[in-house]
Amino acid sequence: MKDIDALAAVRQPIGRASGLPNAHYTDAQTIRAETAAILHGSWAGIGVAAQVPQNGDAVPIDFAGAPLLLLRDRAGRVRVFQNVCRHRGMILVSEPRRIEGAIRCPYHSWCYSTEGRLVATPHVGGPGRNSDARIDRDGLGLIEVAAHVWRDVVFVNLDGTAPPFPEVHAAAIARWAEFDQPLHHDGRDFELAVACNWKLAVENYCESYHLPWIHPGLNAYSRLEDHYHIEGDGFSGQGTSVYRQLTDGATRFPDFDGLPAKWDRAAEYLSLFPNVLLGTHRDHAFAIVLMPDGPDRTREQVHFYYATPDPDVALADRNAAQWRAVFEEDLFVVEGMQRGRAAPGFDGGRFSPAMDGPTHAFHDWVAAKLGA
């Protein structure tokens, strides 16, 4: 009852609301329940399609306690399966690799196609007998997980209860409809290991209130007053009206095609709930997939995209380095908030009605998913 009352306080209007209670950042039992309701019960990001560029490519992913297999099947479709053999539950693929023939279980050699069909069961009926009337192969294919790819991010609904992704995130898709065109993945990805609960990374990313103190270099040209808040159905974030393209003399990245004049100077940064952070600009984009690693650890996987498959090498190097520096400036903040959540008297904090709308929107969404 106490936690329900605290979550109800989160759902109050922003001027009266409290933040999520400490237990949602520190307590293993609370976080297990939260994981089931939010990370398993929503459309959560687990990676990007660029991780499996060729047919047959497969990448094992442990996400929120679930062993998954991200792969591209023979027809080129990106699919996600539970990464376990239907025989005795053995992990099928332990390292990223190309599936040349079938997915073979290393335990008893049961084999599956890249479409998930069980295609071979050696000696299942006894030595030399590879079939058994009591084994229904058609009913023992790999367990497929509902998956959807948007802006190259692979989203999954692990418990199968969420409405279709295009329905859940119709507002975000419509907001960036002009960017519904090819995104060319760049190889300058990187990962940051962060000592905080994944939700703190979302909360920090979606607001601009901290810019003057945490990002003084960025704030020098994209000032606090140049930013605007974004709150929508299933997402929140910020935008700027003074985006400046990175240049090297006359060289710059090509723009995405057919953009309206708004995007000459605008850029937007959305937290797509629960765990994907997106940025879009006239000439490049990025996606950050937050991978929970226990209650107080997160891996931030950062991926870059351009309008062309061959952006200028020197500029792309500078762009990745500059964004990495910005993201690293946030680390001590989210890690400091995680340490602060050990304070027994802290009740979740308060929100600035003028500046914290996007962050409160996320807290409210979480509380709603938990039944408050």
Report what the structure shows.
By secondary structure, the protein is of the alpha+beta class. The protein has 2 domains: 106 residues, Rieske [2Fe-2S] iron-sulphur domain (Rieske Iron-sulfur Protein, 3-layer Sandwich), CATH 2.102.10.10; 178 residues, Naphthalene 1,2-dioxygenase Alpha Subunit, Chain A, domain 1, CATH 3.90.380.10. The strands form 4 sheets. A 7-stranded antiparallel beta sheet has the order 1-10-9-4-3-2-5, with no helix packed on it. Strands 11-19-18-17-16-13-12 form a 7-stranded antiparallel beta sheet. The protein has a 3-stranded antiparallel beta sheet with strand order 6-7-8, with no helix packed on it. A hairpin with a 6-residue loop joins strand 6 and strand 7. The longest helix is centred in the C-terminal third of the chain and has 17 residues. The model has no long low-confidence stretch (mean pLDDT 95).
Entry keywords:
alpha+beta; Rieske Iron-sulfur Protein; Naphthalene 1,2-dioxygenase Alpha Subunit, Chain A, domain 1; seven-stranded antiparallel beta sheet; 11 helices; 19 strands; dioxygenase activity; 2Fe-2S; metal-binding; dioxygenase
Structural class: alpha+beta
**How many DSSP helices?**
11
Task: Provide the gyration radius in Å.
Answer: 22 Å
What is the CATH topology classification name of the largest domain?
Answer: Naphthalene 1,2-dioxygenase Alpha Subunit, Chain A, domain 1
Query: How many domains, in number, for the residues?
Result: 2
Keywords: 2Fe-2S, Dioxygenase, Iron, Iron-sulfur, Metal-binding, Oxidoreductase
EC number: 1.14.13.-
Domain Rieske: 43-122
Protein name: Aromatic ring-hydroxylating dioxygenase subunit alpha
